[in-house]
Predict the 3D structure of the following.
Amino acid sequence: MLVADASDAAQTFFRDVAERSRMRIEITPVRGGDECLSMLSQGRFNLAFIDVNMPVMSGMEALGRARALGNKTFVVLMSGKVTDERLDLARHLRAYEYLVKPFTAEDVTSILKAYQQVMVPIATLIVDDSRTIRRVIRQVLEDAVFKLTIEEAVDGESALKRFKDGGYDLVFLDYAMPGLNGIETLDAIRAREPKAKVVMISAMPDANIEKQALDHGAIAFLPKPFFSADVSRAVHKALGLKMPSLTANWSPDRDLKRRKDICPAEDEGSATGDDRAVAWV
């Protein structure tokens, strides 16, 4: 783990957290942005906590240059103050979290737990009769920090056939489908694989449907249209992880310039109204 911070107190803090952790953590301390960039460029670090304010080069610049070189390290940025501009840039640089000092050992431990989960492949199934919606969810999931192995099914019956060949850890399941509906499919999935985490998705943001889905064992209800942050929140909940504030506090309304509508006006598959869902990634 790389800890890039000019403060001796911060370096001592992270060393203490590492010593108390159940994980085997080897810390490499650096105190300048130029050193941080040099270390990241080596590509040997799994995890990095990087202070934004460092001598010679800022943590943001060091991370930006490293990302441009293809670095994919799991990064947490941190500083004594935060602005909307910094948060936007942190998201752009694919930081997992932005910690505002002072933070606690529990905050760091929560991130370490998330990092451990990132290393574990998560078998994921998307069940929806709309090819557009499947593509939307797939694109958001493929852009996620987690290692999701993704497969698709067009309806409940084909989803259950896939469960015969192997289990899934996470399922995104549409409520309204031809043949078996979402609730019927949910019941059958839970009977075959009780540990599978199911997220019910629906074009109908109906409180009764949501309650029905949760009562039948869904861990979350995701109404269409949805945003990448909504999908991320559902994944974190399924994995029992704390949602990073960097993602949780993102507002699509104030970041419209980075919005990308990844749904075409028409889909070659079904042409129902829920095909026109929009995700921002």
Remarks:
- Residues 108 and 192 are 37 Å apart (CA to CA).
- The two ends are 28 Å apart (CA to CA).
- Residues 253-281 have pLDDT under 50 and may be disordered.
- The domain at 2-117 is CATH 3.40.50.2300 (Rossmann fold).
